[in-house]
Specification:
The complex is a heterodimer. Chain A is mainly alpha-helical. In chain A, about 75% of the residues lie in helices and about 0% in strands. By secondary structure, chain B is of the alpha/beta class. Chain B is globular. Classes of the chains: A mainly alpha, B alpha/beta. The interface of A and B includes residues 216, 224, 306 and 310 of A.
Chain lengths: ~325, ~260
């Protein structure tokens, strides 16, 4: 018969720790390998022998274009395109003009920041509206009776059909209203449905148990519905945010005079000449990477607040 | 502990989708005195859970009433805390917060809540797991959390719907012991639904037998405690066992096979 010593236990722990570290390293290595492969395929697609040669720029050209135009873009200045209408209004009052605007007004950065800001405002508002109505309807079921048919009707309207309507309705003069309007509309509906579905998925037994322990509407809402619906609502929020990047940019592509989508539209007219393809591809890629990074941060946050569930176990919390 | 529970001419009838009426409970009458440990035994689908749900206030009766003292049950409340067959521990609350839920809902001050919670966690042997998540506990430990939550809320009557049905033999035996200790200590009235006759013999003062929604017998179990294997092998215990089997329409051979 053998006995387990403290040293044996420490050895087992060290081995488990090494295994975990190995898994983490492997994960990063595969990630890097995936990126390298993607760049390699991209390079091949952009090679002179490829049929897409004229449409797809090599990766380096796209990165270089983005870097060169991020803070100040001569091309924008040549085309009299800037992203500081308020500042220009002020300058014109004192006799100044477009060429007196600071450099960053002609860089991509102002457009990108405007798109990002609009999307964040819209997703926040839509989430607040959707969750307020969705969660209130758990306490006051009559709200659901009234709202669900309306939400159901609008929910069946594909958002990509609704988006041009918003552009026509609010016009291109009020980009904030148009972009934010579309995304708020989409996010509100999505969050309403997700909050309702999340509540429906809480087991009846749990609610009944809370009732027999003396829970009333308020305490059940606070201690059962709110925490219990977080995982699904968080999942809905990720879907809403991911869709919002696409929608917000799409609305700008459709007609708004500012923002990342506008830059993509503007450069799309120059696809056959100059650095048009590099500009379009780099902007699309940038928004894609931005969405992935924001989603990654969101996933970590969600895993933390739902650490009581399986995702928490995966994080080791 | 002074609450008498009265089941008075209790009927519970459901309409099946086919339009057929199903009599889940049919004119059930009995009285339970304070501090009794009552096991409700019957085959599956013969009204045991319905009886408990009516008492919990989760199911309104079609006719008749369940009364706590002189007051008819009209809805759920913390005076009849219930432990369910399925896992109903709140997974998003730490073990301590789970036990504290009923106390919070009943608006007890924080100091008192902490005191009561600590006491019940210790009583079920989970004081070291107060800050754990339920997912970190075994099935048996989660049942202890549910038991502590029901006990902590301070009700005179505790309802248990086949709470240990999904657990293995050893865990179940251990929980029987925990439950009996708590019952002896608190003298709460316990309604325990089970289809396991041996479990009823280990736990109950009385066995209420239900068959097709009707109360077919009310058997006093006057066996000495603790009811170990020796006690359960006495002629008196065996005769109760056989009586229950006979009422349920099960032969000894079938019972042995089961």
């Amino acid at each position: 018969m053998t006995t387990t010593t403290e040293t044996d236990i420490l050895d087992v722990r060290a081995a488990a720790h090494r295994q975990k570290r190995r898994r983490q390293i492997a994960y990063v290595l595969y990630l890097i390998l995936g990126l390298i492969l993607s760049l390699l395929i991209w390079q091949l697609v952009a090679a002179p022998f490829s049929p897409l040669f004229y449409l797809v720029p090599p990766p380096f050209d796209a990165f270089r274009h983005f870097g060169e135009n991020l803070m100040f873009s001569e091309r924008m200045l040549e085309r009299y395109v800037h992203a500081c209408p308020d500042l220009l209004d002020e300058l014109e009052l004192t006799g100044g003009g477009m060429f007196d605007l600071p450099d960053h007004c002609f860089g991509y950065i102002r457009h990108i920041m405007r798109t990002t800001r609009n999307i964040m405002i819209a997703v926040t508002l839509g989430t607040i509206f959707g969750l307020t109505v969705g969660l209130s309807s758990l306490v006051f079921p009559r709200i659901a009776d009234v709202v669900t048919p309306i939400a159901g009707f609008f929910g069946t309207t594909p958002i990509f059909i609704a988006a041009p309507f918003f552009v026509i309705w609010f016009g291109i003069e009020y980009p904030l209203m148009t972009t934010v309007g579309v995304v708020v509309f989409y996010t509100t509906l999505l969050m309403y449905f997700f909050s309702r579905r999340a509540a429906d998925n809480i087991e009846v037994g749990i609610i009944e148990s809370a009732l027999t322990l003396g829970g009333d509407r308020r305490s059940i809402f606070r201690w059962v519905y709110l925490p219990g619906t977080i995982p699904e609502i968080a999942g809905g929020f990720r879907i809403a945010l991911a869709g919002a990047w696409g929608l917000g940019t799409l609305v700008e592509v459709l007609g708004i005079q500012m923002g990342g989508g506008f830059l993509i539209r503007m450069w799309s007219f120059a696809m056959g000449v100059l650095e048009g393809p590099a500009a379009v591809v780099s902007l699309i890629l940038f928004f894609g990477v931005l969405a992935v990074v924001v989603d990654g941060i969101l996933v970590l946050f969600i895993r933390y607040i739902t650490r009581w569930s399986e995702s928490g176990r995966k994080l080791g919390l | 502990m002074s609450t008498v529970v009265n089941f008075e001419n209790l009927w519970c009838v459901f309409e099946h989708r086919s339009g057929q009426l199903v009599h889940a409970l049919e004119d059930v009458n009995f009285r339970v005195d304070p501090g009794e440990f009552v096991c409700v035994v019957g085959r599956s689908g013969h009204g045991k859970t319905t009886l408990l749900r009516v008492l919990a206030g989760l199911q309104p009766p079609t006719a008749g009433a369940v009364k706590l003292g002189e007051t008819a049950v009209t809805g759920p409340g913390s005076d009849r805390a219930m432990v369910f067959q399925q896992d109903t521990v709140f997974p998003w609350l730490h073990v301590k917060d789970n036990v504290e839920f009923g106390l919070r809902a009943n608006k007890l001050p924080e100091g008192e809540r902490n005191e009561i919670t600590d006491y019940w966690l210790q009583a079920v042997g989970l004081e070291e797991f107060a800050d754990s998540w339920p997912r970190e506990l075994s099935g048996g430990m989660r049942k202890r959390v549910a038991l502590a939550s029901a006990m902590a809320v301070g009700s005179d009557v505790v309802l248990m719907d086949e709470p240990f049905g999904s657990l293995d033999y050893f865990t179940r035996r251990n929980l029987h012991e925990v439950l009996l200790n708590l019952w002896v200590e608190t003298k709460k009235t316990i309604f325990f639904v089970t289809h396991d006759i041996e479990e009823a013999l280990i736990l109950a003062d009385r066995v209420i037998l239900l068959a097709e929604g009707k109360l077919v017998d009310d058997i006093a179990v006057n066996l000495p405690r603790p009811r170990n294997e020796d006690v359960r092998a006495t002629p008196e215990a065996v005769s109760i066992f056989k009586l229950i089997l006979a009422h349920l329409g099960i032969t000894e051979e079938e019972a042995t096979q089961a």
